[in-house]
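Researcher: Sequence recovery benchmark, item below. Answer with residues only.
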């Protein structure tokens, strides 16, 4: 993998800034909860919309975007790119959750969160889409807050999520 030392330096400085200046004892359990269970929001929304019949197409679309983004990141991109986790690369960084054993780039949590958010933005009223996007941003930030991803990992997840949701939108438009 080609590395950019300027980007690595910026990533490292940002993650250490978050650790040293943004982590607060009262926020730790909230961010840990969001990072561990945040993606349940997207699955819950997708299954609810699909199974309740209130918007079956949107529910199926959200679920498809989640599974596609997970598969692309976890089964293809992470093994292919092989980026070391931030807590192994940045001296002094301490993760506050158990250290994931897979590779780092792109963040699968962020990819799924943004795939879900973009799917909601494309299929549901704009207010719900904006709220979903705000939650996806919080989810991405939580991955840095707990010390398991660089900003560039999260941005890679955002891009992956957008590509997955957008690709499904194009396929859906071609079929209908």
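Model:
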């Amino acid at each position: 993998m080609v590395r950019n030392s300027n980007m690595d330096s910026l990533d490292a400085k940002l993650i250490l800034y978050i650790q040293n200046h943004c982590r607060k004892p009262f926020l730790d359990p909230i961010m840990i909860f969001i990072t561990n269970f945040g993606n349940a929001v997207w699955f819950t929304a997708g299954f609810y919309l699909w199974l309740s019949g209130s918007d079956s197409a949107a529910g199926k679309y959200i679920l498809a975007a989640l599974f596609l983004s997970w598969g692309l990141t976890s089964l293809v991109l992470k093994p292919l790119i092989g980026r070391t986790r931030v807590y192994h690369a940045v001296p002094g960084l301490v993760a506050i959750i158990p250290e994931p054993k897979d590779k780092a780039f792109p963040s699968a949590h962020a990819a799924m969160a943004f795939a879900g958010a973009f799917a909601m933005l494309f299929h549901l009223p704009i207010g719900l889409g904006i709220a979903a996007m705000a939650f996806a941003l919080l989810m991405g930030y939580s991955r840095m807050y707990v010390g398991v991803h660089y900003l560039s990992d999260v941005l890679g997840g955002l891009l992956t999520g957008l590509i997955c949701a957008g690709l499904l939108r194009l396929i859906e438009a071609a079929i209908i």
